[in-house]
Design brief:
The chain is an all-alpha fold. Helix content is 78%, strand content 0%.
């Protein structure tokens, strides 16, 4: 039995899970639009929307990546790109949650008038640097040789 045949049940299970989560995120977008009963501040609502949008992008890129793997295109450039992008979307969503928790913590326990603008700027700088790094990896992979075998940039593919 080949490794590709071993992957098929896991790939299908992954597709089902990612598609289910994407449906939940899309339904949360629709639910929030239909029932605007939130007592949250405007900033918190914006963070929720941004988080859901990033999470949806992550799920969609992961669905595309798993679909490509199931089609046997694991060594193609598009597979590498969708895997890198899904990781970048996940990182952005994770840092958004992390910085939101830090902001909430400092608002509750410290005088955060000087810290909050710095925290927002730090979030933007970290994510921009990370996205530049990801696109650099993608370009180097494409320029070097867009195959898996012997490509040092493919080894960075998580």
């Amino acid at each position: 039995m080949s490794s590709e045949e071993d992957f098929t049940p896991l790939g299908i299970a992954g597709l089902v899970i990612y598609c289910s989560l994407a449906c939940v995120v899309i339904s949360s977008f629709v639910w929030r639009r239909l029932f605007r009963q939130s007592k949250l501040q405007k900033g918190a609502l914006i963070i929720q929307r941004v988080f859901r949008a990033i999470l949806l992008c992550f799920l969609l890129s992961r669905i595309v990546w798993l679909s490509l793997l199931l089609e046997g295109m694991q060594e193609e450039l598009i597979s590498f790109i969708t895997n890198r992008l899904s990781f970048a979307f996940f990182f952005s969503a994770y840092t958004l949650v992390l910085f939101y928790w830090a902001e909430t913590y400092h608002q509750n326990y410290y005088d955060s008038s000087k810290f909050m603008p710095l925290l927002g700027s730090l979030f933007v700088v970290v994510n921009i640097a990370f996205w530049i790094f990801q696109w650099t990896l993608i370009l180097l992979f494409a320029l070097y040789d867009s195959t898996k075998e012997g490509n040092p940039f493919y080894e960075l593919n998580i």
